[in-house]
Design a protein that fits this description.
The protein has about 120 residues and is mainly alpha-helical. It has helices at about 15-30, 35-45, 55-65, 70-75, 80-95. About 50% of the residues lie in helices and about 0% in strands. It comes from Paramecium octaurelia.
């Protein structure tokens, strides 16, 4: 029975691993595939890269149940709530009194003292 060859490619550093997982997730999203660790690993392997398995698991958990398209386009679902909050707080802000200008307190100027610097600036 033939043994599978051991992968001898070096493991990518953190930044490269994150980028590889990000691009792999985008490729899977674009292909309407489910974003799971095994598929991320397949795409990364096809790109001739090698990452720690933890990275694919982290990305799977981070994107699980999320709509990648909404993340890409900035639709987080909080925009209507933010608009409503802004609209309801606007009348309350208008009703609030304008703050009174701060009173300036003049401090009595103290005369400067001559300090002996030991001949530093002589």
């Amino acid at each position: 029975m033939a043994r599978a060859q051991k992968d001898t490619r070096p493991i990518a550093d953190q930044a490269t691993s994150e980028a590889a997982c990000t691009y792999a997730a985008l490729i899977l999203y674009e292909d309407n595939q489910e974003i799971v660790a095994s598929k991320l690993a397949q795409v990364i392997k096809a790109a001739n890269l090698r990452v720690e398995p933890i990275w694919t698991k982290v990305f799977e958990k981070a994107l699980k149940g999320k709509k990648v398209g909404d993340l890409l386009h900035g639709n987080t679902g909080n925009a209507p709530a933010a608009q409503t909050a802004a609209q309801t707080s606007a009348p309350a802000t208008q009703q609030a009194k304008a703050p009174e200008p701060a009173k300036e307190v003049k401090k009595a100027e103290e005369p400067e003292e001559d300090v002996d610097m030991g001949g530093l600036f002589d």
